[in-house]
User: Fold this.
Amino acid sequence: GRDYSNVTATNDSNDSDRLLGGLLATGFDEATCLSRYQSSLYRKPSPYKPSPYLLSKLRSYETLHKRCGPGTEPYKKALTQLDQDHIDNNGECKYVVWVSFSGLGNRILSLASVFLYALLTDRVLLVDRGKDMEDLFCEPFPDMSWLLPLDFPLTSQFDGLNQDSSRCYGHMLKNHVVDNDKTLSHLYLHLVHDYGDHDKMFFCQGDQTFIGKVPWLVVKTDNYFVPSLWLIPGFDEELDKLFPQKETVFHHLGRYLFHPTNQVWGLVTRYYEAYLSNADEKIGIQVRVFDVGAGPFQHVMDQISSCTRKEKLLPEVDTVIERSRRVTIPKKHKAVLVTSLNSGYSENLKSMYWEYPTLTGEIIGVHQPSQEGYQQTEKKMHNGKALAEMYLLSMTDSLVTSAWSTFGYVAQGLGGLKPWILYKPENRTAPDPACGRAMSMEPCFHAPPFYDCKAKTGVDTGKLVPHVRHCEDMSWGLKLV
Ligand code: GDP
Assistant:
């Protein structure tokens, strides 16, 4: 096993690993957030290196964030703008407020998207802490909090913000009340999956010019909208420079932003060291079933077996006779990490590998950290466990995920893994083939716009450029490859 105690060892190459190739800033107090500098000890170094341009952009963002963050003079000044409908002169700093909304996987992906939007538009990102953001994640930026202060004047309105809110950009467009000669003090952007055509105008360059002047943007979204940012002229060149390897957006931004708090990190590291660290190979299987009714379902079990057998991720068992087996020492030990709300799938695999020998002689250990039964988004430790499990999945060597699940997208992105996706079953039947390899490790944007802003007509946005394509698991979704 590895020595996890020697965390502070420094030499140049270690330091580069520790800081994820320069992604992470130095100078944080390590003890307050152990995961920040320890995560590299639990993973192989990423084969994807962040571009020097991304690194310099992050460092200048950190400077901006520190200059404009909560409590600073520019922040106080910007707050006074909220008292007016329109502003007469530009302040020093502009902000985008991310509103806490939806399941944890969705939140992680949408927050990364809003952060990228902040980078592209020189805004300061502030995070509505919702019920548990503070309990789950460390501060990602040095010397200045990313949390929206509790006394922020608009916070009490967040829950009620929707498509029909008077300051909703789409609503204003629809009702022809957007006045290009005046600059609003704040605007609400509704980018939730149920949004309408007017809300989707957010993804047009012309609208970005108007939106760009507004000092306070409040965004509610449950989507990974990064692929569509790439289709906005004016953003595309900058994005090419930031991410020459286009499929690395979430991989880098996710590793930069999301550091589990010490409590969650304890869940990750204790589990890893107890059940995974000694295995020769680690396989993650993320089972997310969107069917109604209590599982486990036979068709999902069949699908898992069929996929892992066909793709040679797990060995077959010898059910015919218990042969007098040749003893091969040392035997290869594979650890299978199953995550699911239901315990049935891992119990089934576990029994199979206990009751029968594998044809390859490999020893298979099956482990499932939690079985929460159903989604309980409002419960604290529930989301802590969910985050720990996403993280643990990201530490495996090979990953199987479930179609449509943002939980799986987070794991694959953090891990830098191209997963095998279990395609979505229809009518309670396992699809054939059961799974397929993802084109890239990027998450899928589930609700993209299909609009050509210039021609003002509908268009298949998955066919415009080679690096923005339709997803493997959702035909209308978009992903970067
Ligand atoms: P998605 O619905 O699969 O896209 O993922 P989300 O993370 O947005 O929402 C699902 C929520 O259900 C998670 O945040 C968890 O609260 C819970 N959940 C789903 N699958 C699991 C699992 O395997 N383990 C745990 N601990 N929670 C899960």
Remarks:
- Residues 64 and 441 are 30 Å apart (CA to CA).
